[in-house]
Amino acid sequence: MGDWGYDVIEAADGLEAYERLTENPPPRIAILDWNMPGMDGVSICQKIKDDKDKPFIYKILLTSRDTTNDLVYALENGAHNFQTKPISPVEIRSHVKVGRRLVESDDKLKEYAKLMEKLANIDPLTNIYNRRFFMENAEKELARSLRYDRSFSLLMMDIDYFKKINDTYGHAGGDKVLKSVTNLCSEALRDSDIIGRIGGEEFAIVLPETNEEKAFEVAERIRTSLSELIITYEGEEIQVTMSIGISSLSNHSKKLDDILKNADDALYQAKGSGRNKSIISQSCLLLD
């Protein structure tokens, strides 16, 4: 098979073959004898199940058995092809070619599925979660916080005077600002934090295991860093500011909709009192 352009890995018995096939990455085409010491070919096929999250392995089973029942049994237990001995080199080569085409097709389908998943979940401009996927993950994190009695905070953020930026520098300039803001925010967050773009120039961040005081510190760090950031676009220097509303899980607010509304109210309070501010929702200041 080396003469046909394939890299060949040999195994002395069934156990070694199974070990090879569970390596990462594994061989993508397996030619297995039904009867092997240690572990037979059908048992290997049973164990190496097709899994959408793992590389597809095309399995060809070799055997002297030739009944329809044997064929059905092999295919039902994970084999993809069945070759009766004696083996013709022409036949086995054709089976391997089929396997290669299926492996390549499976790889392309998985790449396409990942792309479709990304397009469904990720904002294409900023490369962070879109509104739908952010809300979905925020609900999960809130449920975890309630289950384990942990803190949970949320920031609602809006770029100040963004329409003026678009009017002055055009949509391409506005896009540059959005990307720069996203990068700055992402760099200020932990791996466990969740950020999403939920509107044109509006962003939201979930801060797990973070109370309102610590959330205010995060918000101020982002807001201050952004006010000091100079964004260059076509030779022009753009400076922007951001208003931020903060809300947290409390006895008064245990639903995501309520926490979002409280953060949104605090955001509009920040914008209405001069912008470029971080304000904690009044609901967080109420005694539980």
CATH class of the largest domain: Alpha Beta
> Span between N and C termini?
73 Å
> Count the strands?
10
CATH homologous superfamily of the largest domain?
Answer: Reverse transcriptase/Diguanylate cyclase domain
What CATH architecture of the largest domain would you give? 2-Layer Sandwich
The largest pleated sheet is described as: 5 strands, mixed
Estimated structural class: alpha/beta
Please work out how many helical segments DSSP would assign. 9
- Radius of gyration using CA atoms only: 29 Å
Based on Cα principal axes, name the global outline.
elongated
Give the helix proportion (percent range): 40-55%
Low-confidence stretches: none
Summed up, the domain count is 2
Please describe what this structure looks like.
Strand 7 (231-233) and strand 8 (236-238) form a beta hairpin. This protein has helices at 14-21, 41-47, 68-76, 89-121, 131-147, 162-187, 212-228, 256-272, 282-285; strands at residues 29-33, 58-63, 81-84, 152-159, 194-197, 202-208, 231-233, 236-238, 242-248, 278-280. Helix content is 48%, strand content 17%. The chain has 9 helices and 10 strands. The chain has 288 residues and is α/β, with parallel strands linked by helices. The chain has 2 domains: 2-121, Response regulator (Rossmann fold); 131-285, Alpha-Beta Plaits, CATH 3.30.70.270. The strands form 3 sheets. It has a 5-stranded mixed sheet with strand order 5-6-4-9-10, sandwiched between helices. A 3-stranded parallel sheet has the order 1-2-3. Strands 7-8 form a two-stranded antiparallel sheet.
